[in-house]
Backbone:
């Protein structure tokens, strides 16, 4: 599905959008629920990635296709490795077969798991023969993806001897590790993350019956921050359901977007995002996004829409996500008339002027490419190719944009 976005203006009246649950929290809690069926979950994400997680956990098939879902692939690799008697092959999309998993597979093998590569060494698909895991100490590299670490933490308390992980080198995407730790604590699991060491104690008694409510997705909120930043002073959008103290690292958006003249207020489980002042064209936005890699695309495109320069660092994980996001951002922003310089961990955007009209944005099977560029419809007419990619994390994205005044035409 390719779409055109007419140059839009959002309606100046109280605008309210309800966003589905965080896919990161949901996918952790779904694995934990499979291990501790006593817990109930509310506001689970309706994203493709969480749907595929639910499907996989129920599946009795020998081959499970998790499509593009990184967390699902990584968390299930650990989960199925620890399920004695279960034999399963995990596969995924063409891109998933290019996303590395060796660090996690090596760590699980060191703990005694039985995993073999079906096609290419180091990459899915993988065949897992579940076993009782009794070894409990392993060292793994921490600067490639925090998902490997969360995957191990999620199963730690179900292992006879728990787990002690030693993290080697710089730790990337730390808030996601802390999110995992916090959810374990909510279930009464004894776990700690101190310096380079993570410990998870075995849970011998059952988890208390309880309901956990998933907070809405902050990465999805980022596109509304961008919309408000690119709109006139006075624009206000309210999003629910959010908390002032979030488990999601991407909640850092609220302070980052202050630099774009956008203020956030929390009230009654909602956030109001308000444009309070214009940003000067000679602003330079400098950010290290090592803790919040998923909002890099949103921020780069906001800067481009406002014509301001940015210097973003801490982006080394972007090359192994749904696409090489650094190259994709450079290509698409340059089609629109911007100038971008990338290395394997940084992105620099030059200050820009007019934005080219009617450019067709390619989305590279990456939901965040489609959603990050859409707010530019406030500045110019634009097209988005393969717009359905948004369903990976945010299936209602386009209908929510229509609700707030965007004019979308299916081509
Ligand atoms: O654990 C998680 O839920 C995630 C961790 C991050 O990945 P990396 O640790 O690979 O950066 C993030 O980009 C991804 O969208 C979700
Ligand atoms: C990187 C992402 O997801 P995953 O790694 O889980 O595919 C994302 O949602 O931006």
Residues:
């Amino acid at each position: 599905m390719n779409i055109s976005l007419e140059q839009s203006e959002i309606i100046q009246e109280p605008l309210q959008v309800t966003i589905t649950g965080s896919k990161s929290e949901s996918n952790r809690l779904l694995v934990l629920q499979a291990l501790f069926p006593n817990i109930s979950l509310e506001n689970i994400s309706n994203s493709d990635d969480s749907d595929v997680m639910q499907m996989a956990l129920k599946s009795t098939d020998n081959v499970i296709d998790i499509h593009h879902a990184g967390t699902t692939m990584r968390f299930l690799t650990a989960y199925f490795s620890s399920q004695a008697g279960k034999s399963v092959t995990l596969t995924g999309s063409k891109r998933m077969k290019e996303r590395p998993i060796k660090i996690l597979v090596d760590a699980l093998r060191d703990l005694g798991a039985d995993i073999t590569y079906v096609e290419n060494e180091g990459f899915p698909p993988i065949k897992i023969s579940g076993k009782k895991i009794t070894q409990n100490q392993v060292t793994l590299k921490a600067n490639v993806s925090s998902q490997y670490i969360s995957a191990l933490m999620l199963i730690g308390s179900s292992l006879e001897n728990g787990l002690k992980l030693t993290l080697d080198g710089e730790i990337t995407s730390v808030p996601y590790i802390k999110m995992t730790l916090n959810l374990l604590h909510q279930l009464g699991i004894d776990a700690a993350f101190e310096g380079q060491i993570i410990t998870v104690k075995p849970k011998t008694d059952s988890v208390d019956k309880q309901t956990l409510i998933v907070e809405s997705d902050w990465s999805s909120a980022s596109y509304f921050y961008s919309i408000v930043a690119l709109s006139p002073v006075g624009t206000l959008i309210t999003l629910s359901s959010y908390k002032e103290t979030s488990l999601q690292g991407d909640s850092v958006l609220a302070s980052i977007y202050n630099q774009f003249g956008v203020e956030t207020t929390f009230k009654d489980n909602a956030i109001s995002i308000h444009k309070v002042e214009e940003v000067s064209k000679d602003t330079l936005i400098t950010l290290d996004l090592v803790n919040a890699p998923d909002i890099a695309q949103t921020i780069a495109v906001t800067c481009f829409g406002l014509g301001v320069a940015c210097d973003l660092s801490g982006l080394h994980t972007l090359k192994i996500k749904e696409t090489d996001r650094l190259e994709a951002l450079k290509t698409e922003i340059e089609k629109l008339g911007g100038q971008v310089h990338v290395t394997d961990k940084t992105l620099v955007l030059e200050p820009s002027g007019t934005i080219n009209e009617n450019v067709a944005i390619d989305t590279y099977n990456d939901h965040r490419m489609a959603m990050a560029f859409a707010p530019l419809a406030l500045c110019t007419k634009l097209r988005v190719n393969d717009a359905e990619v948004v369903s990976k994390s945010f299936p209602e994205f386009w209908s929510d944009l229509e609700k707030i005044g965007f004019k979308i035409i299916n081509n």
